[in-house]
Amino acid sequence: MRVGGGHSAKCSGRRHPGISKQAQIRLVPVDLGSLLRVINISAEQGLRSTPVEIGVAATVSQLPIVRGLAETLVLLSDFTLDEVADIRLAVDEACSTLIAIATPGSTLRCRFTVGDDDLLVHVTGIAATEGLPDQRSFGWHVLRTLTDEVTTTQEPFDQAASGHPTIVEFRRVRGKA
């Protein structure tokens, strides 16, 4: 594959040892000019109101992938750099909260929906035990401080998932000081 500036990159097809199979991204050759057009079209026409979802293993090693996706979405959606940093940290806290109580081997699912003036983040994990995340923790305080609205819910034990589906959802309004 040719990358702008005369440099070349090669995809070996091997998995990176630190990234789960569910989170692997396959590289395919693309014309860089076409890629830029696709990104611009997505930013202008496709991001608003269209949920973007990702599922990763519920482990801390997968956090950079989720943070990176969140950061990319809000950068393409006209949030300020300060808002981008706040959202990235809020996503990290929401995911970390659910990872801390997750059933081993479970999946963390994140859904991002960019509205006309806000971002809604919905994170679902499978808790090993019954009970909501500790809302008195420092991480939860950070999450409340960085967002305009945050809620958590837990469903009854799910036999198929071997745990309690637990959801952390938050909203961040664009342009609000």
Computed structural class = alpha+beta
CATH superfamily: Histidine kinase-like ATPase, C-terminal domain
Low-confidence stretches: 1-44
H and E string: EEHEHHEEHEE
Q: What is the CATH first-level class name?
A: Alpha Beta
By DSSP, the count of extended strands is 7
Distance N to C terminus:
44 Å
Name given to the CATH architecture: 2-Layer Sandwich
Overall form: globular
CATH fold call: Heat Shock Protein 90
How would you explain this protein's 3D organization?
The structure is a single chain. By secondary structure, the protein is an alpha+beta fold. The chain has a single domain (52-177), classed as Histidine kinase-like ATPase, C-terminal domain (Heat Shock Protein 90), CATH 3.30.565. Helix content is 32%, strand content 25%. Strands 3-4-5-7-6 form a five-stranded antiparallel β-sheet, covered by helices on one side. The chain has a two-stranded antiparallel sheet with strand order 1-2. Helix 2 runs antiparallel to helix 3 and helix 3 runs antiparallel to helix 4 (138-146). The chain is globular and about 40 Å long. Keywords: Kinase, Transferase. This is Serine/threonine-protein kinase RsbW.
